[in-house]
Specification:
TolA/TonB C-terminal domain, 21% strand, single chain, flat, alpha+beta, three-stranded antiparallel beta sheet
């Protein structure tokens, strides 16, 4: 083993010394002097300019002069086509059920969910593999926000209530409109289901 190390060190030393001598000889060897008697011709490149034919757009013709005479004005249309006319203008059609039957339903509307946030699955239920649901009742305000959420039923109890209430508070609704004004709706219920994905 000692013989291996000694031979490796000696071989490395010889290789290094050989490379140093080779580099010294390459650096010390002067380049042969240039023969000053030979001269070369200098090439001069000149770019030829091509003559291009420039085609201009033909001039636009002048528009014809406007006539001095204006055409005679048309007579106003006569709405009376002829035939017998009984009474005045025809009455406006009214919807069935009398005047304004549909008016009260056109701008009135019920509340509609716009944003429904998915609840965060509770870690304790997730680690135990528990699934369930929570029935929540709340008030939809005139602005469409959720207020006063209350848990009515939780199955199983003690796992999902806080997560369901937190999610329901982030819901947004289009408020109910009555008489053209948004109003609050109480007693709105929703069921928040907690199921693990496969």
């Amino acid at each position: 083993m000692l013989f291996r190390y000694i031979s490796a060190v000696l071989l490395g030393t010889v290789a290094t010394f050989g490379l140093l001598m080779l580099m010294r000889s390459v650096i010390a060897d002067p380049m042969p002097a240039e023969d000053s008697g030979v001269t070369g011709e200098v090439l001069d490149f000149v770019r030829l300019v091509e003559e291009l034919d420039i085609v201009l757009d033909p001039p636009k013709p002048e528009p014809p002069p406007l006539p001095d005479e204006q055409p005679p004005p048309l007579p106003p249309p006569d709405p009376d086509i002829g035939g017998p006319r009984i009474g005045g203008d025809p009455p406006e059609p009214t919807p069935p059920g009398g005047e304004g039957f549909f008016d009260r339903y056109i701008d009135d509307g019920t509340y509609l969910p716009i944003v429904r946030v998915q609840p965060i699955y509770p870690r304790r239920a997730l680690t135990r593999g528990i699934e369930g649901y929570v029935l929540v009742e709340f008030v939809v305000t005139a602005t469409g926000a959720v207020r006063n959420p209350v848990v009515l039923v939780a199955d199983p109890p003690g796992f999902f209530e806080r997560a369901a209430l937190s999610a329901v508070l982030k819901f947004k609704y289009k408020p109910k409109v009555t008489g053209g004004k948004p109003v609050a709706v109480s007693g709105v219920r929703t069921r928040v289901v907690f199921e693990m994905e496969d």
